[in-house]
Amino acid sequence: MKYLGKTPPFRGPDGEILANGVAEISYLRLGGFDQWVMIRGENIANPILILLHGGPGFPEMRLFRTFNAALEQYYTVVYWMQRGTSKSFDRRMPASSLTIEQFIADLDELVDMMRKRFGKDKVALYGHSWGSVLGVLYASRYPEKVAAYVGTGQIGEWAAFETASYTFVLAEAERRRHRKAIRELRAIGPPLHAFWDMVVERKWLTRFFGIIRGMSLWRFSRVTLGGPEASIVDLPDILRSQFVTPKVMWQELSGVNLIKTAPALQMSIFFFLGRHDRVVVPETSVAYFDVLQAPSKTLMWFEESGHEPPTEEPEKFNSLMVEMVLPVALASLSRS
């Protein structure tokens, strides 16, 4: 049984529920399957911000709720668990539906639902890792619906970041003289990897550097399964979605090259990159940023972050989302 979860309403100084606030969780029918969506914002007049998590299959809702809830003062934030992810994992969902094209179609349905409900022409998109692929491809196809795009762990060419990540972790294994890691990493060889070879590389990357810089596995687990929106009963589907969804999609993902397929975007672009990202090595993100054409583009470094800047440097991330991205999102409302 899936746990829908609960989320608290926004209240004023006297405890009254804010009339223009929204705080709700439901399953929305997207692409023929029910997908978990939470909407939170203090004022529905604010711009819409849709969060595109990584993986595919890696739920980040609780991380964002724990470290970035301040953004709900300025945006109507849409937390979406994509198909094949945690609360949206459905064993009846055919593997043939786990394609990049289907995720784009799901997102378009979600965007249109939010635009219609809240009376907005455009939304802001935030994409992390795999979500950065989905966000860029969507923004490229539907520029009239996107006011601004923000990417962290920004992928450009999939093969390039996989190669850089493998090279880095092998060098680290050799520096540590970790014989088992060296043996396993040399056995799989350099990318492009088959799915289970990639799992081996990520295993050593995680052991050497952790999932999130400066956060123990115990704390990560407590945050991910913490309430009230999540529960320990989510764990089986979280574990399934970590392997089933990316395994099915792996061959298609390995061929992604946004430098070729999305060389230009028609809205303001923001790359917020972790200096110490060892998954999507930031030099590969910069390579995409340098060639990407857009009306305006901004690259900001998070000097203390790895793969998750919103979690690792939340105050800086939240501030930039308000100081740099919000004015662009608000300008799109004034033109509506």
List the helices and strands and how they pair.
Blueprint: E1 22-30, E2 33-41, E3 48-52, H1 61-67, E4 76-80, H2 100-118, E5 123-128, H3 130-141, E6 146-152, H4 158-176, H5 179-188, H6 195-209, H7 217-224, H8 235-254, H9 258-261, E7 268-274, H10 282-291, E8 297-302, H11 309-312, H12 314-334
Parallel strand pairs: 3-4, 3-5, 5-6, 6-7, 7-8
Antiparallel strand pairs: 1-2, 2-4
Helix pairs in contact: 2-3, 4-5, 4-6, 5-6
Strand order of the largest sheet: 1-2-4-3-5-6-7-8
- In N-to-C order, the SSE pattern is EEEHEHEHEHHHHHHEHEHH
Mean pLDDT over all positions: 95
Number of helices: 12
**CATH evolutionary superfamily of the domain at 22-157 and 236-334:** Alpha/Beta hydrolase fold, catalytic domain
The low-confidence runs, each spanning 5 or more residues with pLDDT under 50, are: none
Total beta strand runs: 8
Rg value:
19 Å
Which labels suit this protein?
alpha/beta; 8 strands; 12 helices; 336 residues; 16% strand; eight-stranded mixed beta sheet; 44% helix; Rossmann fold
